Amino acid sequence: MTLDLFAATDPYQPIAPGAMLLHGFALADADAILADVQAIAARAPFRRMFTPGGQAMSVAMSNCGSLGWISDRHGYRYVAADPDSGQPWPPLPPRLLRLAGAAAERAGFPAFVPDACLINRYAPGTRMSLHQDRDEQDFTQPIVSVSLGLSVTFLFGGLARSDKAARLTLSHGDVLVWGGPARLRFHGVLPLLDGRHPATGACRINLTFRKAG
Predict the structure, then answer these.
(1) Nearest-angstrom CA–CA distance, 59 and 97
(2) 110: exposed, middle or buried (C-beta count within 10 Å: 0-12, 13-18, 19+)?
């Protein structure tokens, strides 16, 4: 089932207990956010990480904040320094902190202050398989996900991998927040379709804010 939220009267749509899609919430700041992403990537370039099994991930990744998420043969985890440079990850820009906090509050999670932002760059054909975000210390804190550039079909499943997943269209400027009873729901992204967006070209940029430490 694909949820068509573009025609909804209220652009802020609950999609499950603890989960809300904020259509267009980041649109006004999109250009400035992309400039922040460009500055972050200049210090911590996008790279394709490896799974513990040694397979290269299709999505290119970077991080900002006091902690950054990495994957390698030793597993999935958060670390304070970029393993490629040995330097601390770039700090979270104030604009991004404000956006994440405001989106979380609008979805019912006040006082959210993330310490990690994983930045994913999707090229056409790349995808993210169903997974849970379980590497954080405190599951009472929500996940805030910002979509920029090409639209994508997001899969929002249940608490078991086998549960049927709803399909959500995430477009430029949309923000998805999930926490509380939805915090450990499986989620993923179908392969990105070919296309070009005026703001990002032939890619999608996704910023995922977490309280990791």
Answers:
(1) 24
(2) exposed
Domains of the chain and any CATH numbers: 2-210 (2.60.120.590)
Calpha distance 5→154 (Å, rounded)? 13
pLDDT attached to residue 47: 98
Widest Cα–Cα separation across the chain: 48
Rounded Cα gap, residues 96 and 44, in angstroms: 17
Alpha-carbon span 174 to 27, nearest angstrom: 7
What is the CB neighbour count within 10 angstroms for residue 121?
20
Scanning the structure block, which residue is given the tokens 């999935």?
A: 76
* pTM for the predicted model, two decimal places: 0.94
End-to-end Cα, the chain, rounded Å: 35
74: alpha, beta or left, given left = phi > 0 and alpha = psi -120 to 50?
Answer: alpha
pLDDT tens for each residue of 1-15:
444 444 446 899 999
Which one-letter DSSP state was computed for residue 87? S
Q: What are phi and psi of 98, to 5 degrees?
A: -65, -40
Q: Which two tokens stand for residue 116?
A: 């990690």
Span 18-60, pLDDT tens digits: 999 999 999 999 999 999 999 999 999 999 999 999 999 999 9
At 9 the pLDDT is 61
